Amino acid sequence: MAEVEHHPSALRNRQPILEQLLRICGADAQGLALEVASGTGCHVEAFAPAFPNLTFQPSEYVVVGVDSEERAAEYGKIGSRRGLPELENIDGVGCTKFANVLPAVALDVSAPWSDWPSSVRAKEGEHTLVFCSNTLHISPWECTTGLAAGAGKALAKEGKLLIYGPFKVNGNFVGEDGGAGNANFDASLRQRNPLWGIRDLEEVASVAAKAGLTLHEKVAMPANNLLLHFIKTE
Fold first, then answer.
1. How far apart are CA 182 and CA 171, in angstroms?
2. In this structure, what is the dihedral angle of CA atoms 211, 174, 11, 137, given to the nearest 10 degrees?
3. pLDDT 10s digit of each residue in the chain, 234 long?
4. Measured between alpha carbons, how far is 182 from 11 in angstroms, rounded to an integer?
5. What are the phi and psi torsion angles at 98 (to 5°)?
Protein backbone atom coordinates (compact mmCIF):
# COMPACT_ATOMS: atom_id res chain seq x y z
CA MET A 1 0.00 0.00 0.00
CA ALA A 2 1.28 3.49 -0.84
CA GLU A 3 2.34 5.66 2.06
CA VAL A 4 -0.29 8.09 3.31
CA GLU A 5 0.78 11.72 3.17
CA HIS A 6 -1.21 14.18 5.26
CA HIS A 7 -1.52 17.85 4.45
CA PRO A 8 0.80 19.99 6.63
CA SER A 9 -2.12 22.08 7.91
CA ALA A 10 -3.93 18.96 9.14
CA LEU A 11 -0.77 17.80 10.88
CA ARG A 12 -0.42 21.20 12.55
CA ASN A 13 -3.99 21.50 13.76
CA ARG A 14 -4.72 17.97 14.93
CA GLN A 15 -2.93 18.31 18.27
CA PRO A 16 -4.67 21.59 19.27
CA ILE A 17 -7.99 20.06 18.19
CA LEU A 18 -7.29 16.88 20.15
CA GLU A 19 -6.55 18.91 23.26
CA GLN A 20 -9.95 20.58 22.98
CA LEU A 21 -11.71 17.27 22.33
CA LEU A 22 -10.14 15.85 25.48
CA ARG A 23 -11.31 18.89 27.44
CA ILE A 24 -14.83 18.79 26.04
CA CYS A 25 -15.48 15.04 25.89
CA GLY A 26 -13.04 13.62 28.44
CA ALA A 27 -10.58 10.83 27.72
CA ASP A 28 -13.09 8.32 29.09
CA ALA A 29 -15.79 9.23 26.54
CA GLN A 30 -17.70 6.21 25.26
CA GLY A 31 -19.93 5.38 22.33
CA LEU A 32 -19.87 6.22 18.64
CA ALA A 33 -18.01 9.08 16.97
CA LEU A 34 -18.71 10.02 13.35
CA GLU A 35 -16.09 12.04 11.50
CA VAL A 36 -17.47 13.83 8.44
CA ALA A 37 -15.00 14.59 5.64
CA SER A 38 -12.05 12.68 7.08
CA GLY A 39 -9.72 13.65 4.22
CA THR A 40 -6.63 11.47 4.49
CA GLY A 41 -7.50 10.27 7.99
CA CYS A 42 -5.04 12.61 9.68
CA HIS A 43 -7.38 13.45 12.57
CA VAL A 44 -8.79 10.01 13.28
CA GLU A 45 -5.22 8.71 13.34
CA ALA A 46 -4.57 11.00 16.32
CA PHE A 47 -8.00 10.78 17.96
CA ALA A 48 -8.42 6.99 18.06
CA PRO A 49 -5.60 6.19 20.50
CA ALA A 50 -6.58 9.15 22.71
CA PHE A 51 -10.19 7.91 23.06
CA PRO A 52 -9.95 4.12 23.45
CA ASN A 53 -13.61 3.81 24.46
CA LEU A 54 -14.97 5.67 21.44
CA THR A 55 -15.61 3.81 18.20
CA PHE A 56 -14.79 6.09 15.27
CA GLN A 57 -16.57 6.02 11.92
CA PRO A 58 -14.54 8.01 9.37
CA SER A 59 -16.16 9.13 6.13
CA GLU A 60 -15.31 11.01 2.96
CA TYR A 61 -17.06 12.41 -0.09
CA VAL A 62 -16.32 10.17 -3.06
CA VAL A 63 -17.21 11.27 -6.58
CA VAL A 64 -18.10 8.16 -8.56
CA GLY A 65 -16.06 7.78 -11.72
CA VAL A 66 -13.61 10.57 -10.86
CA ASP A 67 -9.93 9.79 -10.30
CA SER A 68 -8.50 10.87 -6.94
CA GLU A 69 -5.94 13.20 -8.52
CA GLU A 70 -8.54 14.74 -10.83
CA ARG A 71 -10.86 15.22 -7.88
CA ALA A 72 -8.10 16.83 -5.84
CA ALA A 73 -7.44 19.34 -8.59
CA GLU A 74 -11.10 20.27 -9.05
CA TYR A 75 -12.47 20.03 -5.53
CA GLY A 76 -9.49 21.19 -3.51
CA LYS A 77 -9.00 18.06 -1.45
CA ILE A 78 -6.65 18.26 1.51
CA GLY A 79 -3.83 15.76 1.35
CA SER A 80 -1.95 13.77 -1.26
CA ARG A 81 -3.16 10.24 -1.92
CA ARG A 82 -0.51 9.16 -4.41
CA GLY A 83 -3.19 7.43 -6.42
CA LEU A 84 -5.00 5.75 -3.53
CA PRO A 85 -8.80 5.74 -3.51
CA GLU A 86 -10.17 7.99 -0.76
CA LEU A 87 -11.55 5.31 1.54
CA GLU A 88 -8.55 3.01 1.21
CA ASN A 89 -6.34 5.95 2.05
CA ILE A 90 -8.24 6.59 5.30
CA ASP A 91 -8.27 2.90 6.23
CA GLY A 92 -4.49 2.85 5.90
CA VAL A 93 -4.23 5.00 9.03
CA GLY A 94 -7.58 4.01 10.56
CA CYS A 95 -9.16 0.58 10.81
CA THR A 96 -5.97 -1.25 9.79
CA LYS A 97 -4.15 0.27 12.77
CA PHE A 98 -6.76 0.80 15.47
CA ALA A 99 -9.38 -1.62 16.77
CA ASN A 100 -11.72 1.27 17.61
CA VAL A 101 -11.86 2.64 14.05
CA LEU A 102 -14.39 1.26 11.56
CA PRO A 103 -13.76 1.03 7.81
CA ALA A 104 -14.33 4.41 6.17
CA VAL A 105 -17.61 4.98 4.35
CA ALA A 106 -18.58 7.24 1.47
CA LEU A 107 -20.72 10.16 2.63
CA ASP A 108 -22.12 13.11 0.72
CA VAL A 109 -22.89 15.44 3.61
CA SER A 110 -25.18 17.56 1.44
CA ALA A 111 -27.51 14.59 0.93
CA PRO A 112 -30.67 14.05 3.00
CA TRP A 113 -30.41 11.74 6.00
CA SER A 114 -32.16 8.98 4.07
CA ASP A 115 -29.17 8.87 1.70
CA TRP A 116 -26.48 8.74 4.38
CA PRO A 117 -24.65 5.40 4.78
CA SER A 118 -26.89 2.67 6.14
CA SER A 119 -24.34 1.85 8.85
CA VAL A 120 -24.63 5.41 10.16
CA ARG A 121 -28.43 5.57 9.88
CA ALA A 122 -28.68 2.27 11.76
CA LYS A 123 -27.25 4.10 14.78
CA GLU A 124 -29.59 7.10 14.56
CA GLY A 125 -29.76 8.93 17.86
CA GLU A 126 -26.89 6.91 19.36
CA HIS A 127 -23.76 8.89 18.50
CA THR A 128 -21.76 10.61 21.23
CA LEU A 129 -19.82 12.84 18.84
CA VAL A 130 -19.93 14.17 15.29
CA PHE A 131 -16.75 15.94 14.18
CA CYS A 132 -15.97 17.89 11.01
CA SER A 133 -12.94 20.03 10.21
CA ASN A 134 -11.94 22.43 7.44
CA THR A 135 -14.89 21.59 5.24
CA LEU A 136 -17.62 24.23 5.38
CA HIS A 137 -15.59 26.95 3.65
CA ILE A 138 -14.57 24.70 0.74
CA SER A 139 -18.00 23.27 -0.02
CA PRO A 140 -21.43 24.58 -1.06
CA TRP A 141 -23.79 25.90 1.64
CA GLU A 142 -25.84 22.73 1.25
CA CYS A 143 -23.00 20.86 2.96
CA THR A 144 -23.38 23.08 6.02
CA THR A 145 -27.13 22.57 6.21
CA GLY A 146 -26.68 18.85 5.53
CA LEU A 147 -24.09 18.51 8.28
CA ALA A 148 -26.39 20.16 10.81
CA ALA A 149 -29.39 18.07 9.79
CA GLY A 150 -27.41 14.83 9.72
CA ALA A 151 -25.74 15.50 13.06
CA GLY A 152 -29.14 16.24 14.55
CA LYS A 153 -30.27 12.79 13.45
CA ALA A 154 -27.10 10.93 14.39
CA LEU A 155 -26.49 12.35 17.85
CA ALA A 156 -27.91 11.12 21.11
CA LYS A 157 -29.40 13.62 23.57
CA GLU A 158 -26.51 15.71 24.95
CA GLY A 159 -24.30 14.47 22.12
CA LYS A 160 -21.78 16.92 20.66
CA LEU A 161 -21.20 18.36 17.20
CA LEU A 162 -17.73 19.89 16.91
CA ILE A 163 -16.82 21.91 13.81
CA TYR A 164 -13.33 23.29 13.22
CA GLY A 165 -12.40 25.90 10.66
CA PRO A 166 -12.45 29.61 9.80
CA PHE A 167 -15.67 31.52 10.50
CA LYS A 168 -16.97 35.07 10.45
CA VAL A 169 -18.54 36.38 13.67
CA ASN A 170 -21.47 38.78 13.30
CA GLY A 171 -20.50 39.12 9.66
CA ASN A 172 -16.94 40.13 10.46
CA PHE A 173 -13.71 38.29 9.74
CA VAL A 174 -11.83 37.50 12.93
CA GLY A 175 -8.34 36.44 13.90
CA GLU A 176 -5.14 37.46 15.59
CA ASP A 177 -4.51 39.83 12.68
CA GLY A 178 -7.89 41.51 13.03
CA GLY A 179 -9.40 39.32 10.35
CA ALA A 180 -7.27 40.51 7.42
CA GLY A 181 -5.88 37.06 6.70
CA ASN A 182 -9.28 35.39 6.62
CA ALA A 183 -10.70 38.22 4.48
CA ASN A 184 -8.01 37.57 1.87
CA PHE A 185 -8.53 33.83 2.20
CA ASP A 186 -12.28 34.24 1.66
CA ALA A 187 -11.74 36.32 -1.46
CA SER A 188 -9.42 33.69 -2.91
CA LEU A 189 -11.91 30.93 -2.14
CA ARG A 190 -14.80 32.74 -3.82
CA GLN A 191 -12.65 33.50 -6.85
CA ARG A 192 -11.86 29.82 -7.13
CA ASN A 193 -15.45 28.71 -6.61
CA PRO A 194 -18.35 31.14 -5.99
CA LEU A 195 -20.12 28.47 -3.92
CA TRP A 196 -17.26 28.42 -1.40
CA GLY A 197 -16.41 30.95 1.28
CA ILE A 198 -15.96 31.46 5.01
CA ARG A 199 -19.32 30.97 6.72
CA ASP A 200 -20.89 33.24 9.29
CA LEU A 201 -21.06 31.70 12.75
CA GLU A 202 -24.57 33.01 13.38
CA GLU A 203 -25.88 31.49 10.15
CA VAL A 204 -24.31 28.13 11.01
CA ALA A 205 -25.80 28.29 14.51
CA SER A 206 -29.21 29.10 13.04
CA VAL A 207 -29.34 26.03 10.82
CA ALA A 208 -27.96 23.91 13.66
CA ALA A 209 -30.73 25.12 15.96
CA LYS A 210 -33.32 23.86 13.47
CA ALA A 211 -31.78 20.39 13.94
CA GLY A 212 -31.99 20.59 17.73
CA LEU A 213 -28.36 21.64 18.21
CA THR A 214 -27.47 24.52 20.52
CA LEU A 215 -24.18 26.41 20.28
CA HIS A 216 -22.50 25.90 23.65
CA GLU A 217 -19.19 27.65 23.01
CA LYS A 218 -16.79 28.88 20.37
CA VAL A 219 -13.12 28.33 21.04
CA ALA A 220 -10.37 30.42 19.45
CA MET A 221 -7.85 28.16 17.77
CA PRO A 222 -4.48 28.68 16.05
CA ALA A 223 -4.21 30.15 12.55
CA ASN A 224 -7.37 32.28 12.85
CA ASN A 225 -9.70 29.30 13.23
CA LEU A 226 -12.53 28.51 15.63
CA LEU A 227 -13.86 25.30 17.15
CA LEU A 228 -17.66 25.40 17.39
CA HIS A 229 -19.15 23.21 20.13
CA PHE A 230 -22.83 22.34 19.68
CA ILE A 231 -24.89 20.15 21.99
CA LYS A 232 -27.95 18.11 20.99
CA THR A 233 -30.64 19.55 23.21
CA GLU A 234 -33.83 18.32 21.54
1. 12
2. 50
3. 445 678 889 999 999 999 999 999 999 999 999 999 999 999 999 999 999 999 999 999 987 665 555 655 554 444 445 556 889 989 999 999 999 999 999 999 999 999 999 999 999 999 999 999 999 999 999 999 999 999 999 999 999 999 999 999 999 999 999 999 999 999 999 999 999 999 999 999 999 999 999 999 999 999 999 999 999 998
4. 20
5. -125, 130
